[in-house]
Amino acid sequence: MNRYSLSIAVLITCISGFPTFSHNLSVWAESTNSSPAIASQIVTPQKAIARLLNSQKPKAEWFTTELLAKLSLTQIEQIVANLQIVVGNCQQVQGQDVSYLAICDRGNVPIKIKLNP
User: 82 or 12, which is more confident?
Assistant: First the structure.
């Protein structure tokens, strides 16, 4: 596994699904209402991955306190910026359970992720 894959795997394993994000990806819905409008707002692992990989500035509230105790937000920003340089923007995320593949402009990134409730 190369340095970027390892870094992003460590980073993504502790991501939490949290509010608003640009690129029209979605917002976190705290309701468990089964309404289609509410269901479309829930952050899925795929949306969380795309949100992070396409972000110009990741937000601290996207991550658990455990991860932020190990990596500063500045370090996370550097990891994501370096990854964006190498693979470009995330166009699509495929996968299920905890294993995903981010399909980007110039390459693919294998990611393992589990969102907190």
Answer: 82
